[in-house]
Request: fold
Amino acid sequence: MLTQESGFSPTAQSGAGAQGIAQFMPSTWESNGIDGNGDGKRNPWDPEDAIPSAAKYLCKMAQETKDVPGDKQSNMLAAYNAGSGAVRNAHGVPPYRETQDYVRSINALAGKPATGGKMTTVQQAATAINAASGQIGKPYSWGGGDATGPSTGSCCSPNGSAGTYIVGFDCSGLTLYAYAKAGIFLPRTAAEQYAASQPVSRDDMYPGDLVFYGSSAESIHHVGLYIGGGYMIEAPRPGTNVRYSSINSMSDLFGVARPVSQQKKEI
Reply:
């Protein structure tokens, strides 16, 4: 979506007055923008605020158009562009050329890397990002977090830190939780999540992809949830909280992969 909106440019401004990487109109930003990086400001020009705000707004549009006939993903995207009222009144994507072209282009981009397996949809990715964004500020807990949310963890991390008495998330617990909210059930560890996902090149990254760190597939030690514009949501390490970070904040980025829809296994 950010490719279509601004070409990932934080300084983009449309002739109609839409601002920043997510192209929020000032009135829409006023009622929907959030302080994503916790600096006390809501700034549509700051990707750390605008990207999570866009994810949250997409989820809002999905909710407001859930009963509209037709393709739910297309209706959600149309609502982001033209407003949910226009989609409801048209009983689907409204007959505006700009909106129809917008929906067609993003759906084509979203489907571009599909190379086997049922890849995550734009709506699932937005749901996962919104779920992870809701955990910003939660403490890191080694072994913490599951499909239901933050939890106490276990002992012990490589540096001896225990999560036994800390309610929160470790890196893969956060991504597991986020995608469970979207109906996709990931394995528990970062390395297992990489093995269960579809690798994509960095040139084909989209919000919702998982970003993995390590020197090899077997040695992956960290995972974050990509939100666009070079940023991710992550549970970094013991002693920190869930936060927004640059994907280049660690030097050993190994690869990017896109979760694949799977049925939840019964135990």
User: Anything to note?
Assistant: The chain has two domains: 2-111, 137-259. The first strand starts at residue 151 and ends at 152.
